[in-house]
Amino acid sequence: MQTSSDPSSDPMQTSSDQQPAGAPAGQTGARIPSHAVVLGGGIAGLLAARVLRDHFERVTLVERDDLPPGDVPRRGVPQGQHAHGLLAGGARVLERLFPGLRDELVADGALLHDVVGDGRFYGLGGYQVRYDSGLRGVFLTRPMLEGHLRRRLLTLPGIVPLLGHRAESLIALNGVDGKRAGGVVVRRGGVSREVRADLVVDATGRGSRAPAWLEALGYARPEEETIAIGVGYTTRRYRRRATDLDGDALVLTHAQPPHGLRAGFAFPVENDEWIVTLTGWLNDHAPTDEAGFRAYARSLAAPDIAGLIEHAEPLDAGAVYKFPTSIRRRFERLKRLPDGYLTIGDALCSFNPVYGQGMTAAAMEADALDATLRAAGGRRRGLAARYYRRVSRVVDGPWDLSAGADFAFPGTAGPKAPGTDAINWYVGHLRRATAYDATVTQAFVEVGNLLRPPAALFAPSILLRVLRAARARRRDERRLGGATPAPAAGRAAHPATGGGSMA
Ligand SMILES: Cc1cc2nc3c(=O)[nH]c(=O)nc-3n(C[C@H](O)[C@H](O)[C@H](O)COP(=O)(O)OP(=O)(O)OC[C@H]3O[C@@H](n4cnc5c(N)ncnc54)[C@H](O)[C@@H]3O)c2cc1C
Predict the structure, then answer these.
(1) pTM here?
(2) How far is it, in rounded angstroms, from Cα 415 to Cα 228?
(3) pLDDT for 72-89, tens place per residue?
(4) How many angstroms is it from 205 CA to the middle of ligand 1?
(5) Which of 67, 331, 349, 485 has a 20 to 30 Å separation from 212 between CA atoms?
């Protein structure tokens, strides 16, 4: 990706500061000259730029990495070496923003699998029932997904990449209610330059300097909610053969709270590979070396991953990522916010990655940004407050789900919402019920994929089924003398259709 040499799309060109930030949507034709800058070319930055392009004449994407050729892990996104599941909720938004993306990914080697029927999912003390849920996930590496999104974005008129430039600080201009952001200072090598803009969207990830930048403009720092979970990811890749797992495509072995801290997942990715991640809470982490990795896999609650890698050919030396805390920055609680500066993605909320929500949350946040700009109709004042009000409602669902689930481990530390223990007690029973009941499983999977709000798990019909499953489980346990029931052979019918696909 090269910085454009076309003077009309020069990212250093000074923006018209008098223009409103939210010009009419692109499809109306007559866009008011305006310029937005997105900081960070990760998933959140790419999606923000895609959305902004419908509202601004020009969108500059500032990324500190000089991107490598090919879809390979890069320095600025170290988590790219680890398994990245794209939830169905996120896949839907991506498809809307980039029509045809899923087919394009599959044509290039990504795998399409039913997120219930094609896997071995070991939940709390048992295997989840299997049936064709109609929810098909795309399985691929994070660099491949990011590469495709980036290439699609860069074909759009008005998008200007500025690579190898680090955003250093905001440009402070006098606004009506105090200072506002009038662009950003970027640096490459020893040289700093100004990029003027009507709106700056910060997608620089978890390490975003948003709190310090707000302070420098004369505003308060947002409160930071942190939940200490001490999660560690260890990932290795293996050659995939058609006979592996008797043809099953996905494995997910959950941790067993309160005391079983270890989990693992194996996903198929492009180029006939397995990406296998072993993860542990509260600093109980897997080593990278092959023997240690295998031993850790054998300690999981189900034998599938250990069995898979026992005879598989390793393809790399392994990678580690430590994730000490989930962080949510509460911009929506600030009494004053500057115009011209917003945050999105991990800069706004960095979720425990185990639940696979980060990219989907970023997609839903990009949707919220789009909706806010549409509703603003070109008004710049108060945009930040309106955006954060809207986006905080988007973040609430996944945050409550993941933070709540983490408190099932007694060593988790942080602000715990009232009622969390009672909810976890019920969700524990609900998760056990997924070994018995396809309707409960479908609700659990749809909520987990951010297609439905968590409240769906508390519907009276689901509660009743959870109770019935608890009774059936007790019967089985008595019959088996305490042993865990084996996975059901074959597939159950789809709970809604009695067998067909929902897609
Ligand atoms: C180990 C791990 C596993 C994960 N697994 C999943 C998963 O299975 N599913 C899922 O949905 N999510 C997962 N996530 C989360 C996911 O990676 C992120 O939530 C998602 O990609 C959104 O991140 P982002 O774009 O906000 O930030 P990032 O991906 O961190 O991107 C930030 C970008 O900003 C650039 N940058 C940083 N500072 C500057 C600067 N000053 N100037 C210019 N550029 C800058 C960086 O180089 C980078 O390109 C995982 C995260 C981790 C840590």
Answers:
(1) 0.92
(2) 10
(3) 999 999 999 999 999 999
(4) 5
(5) 67
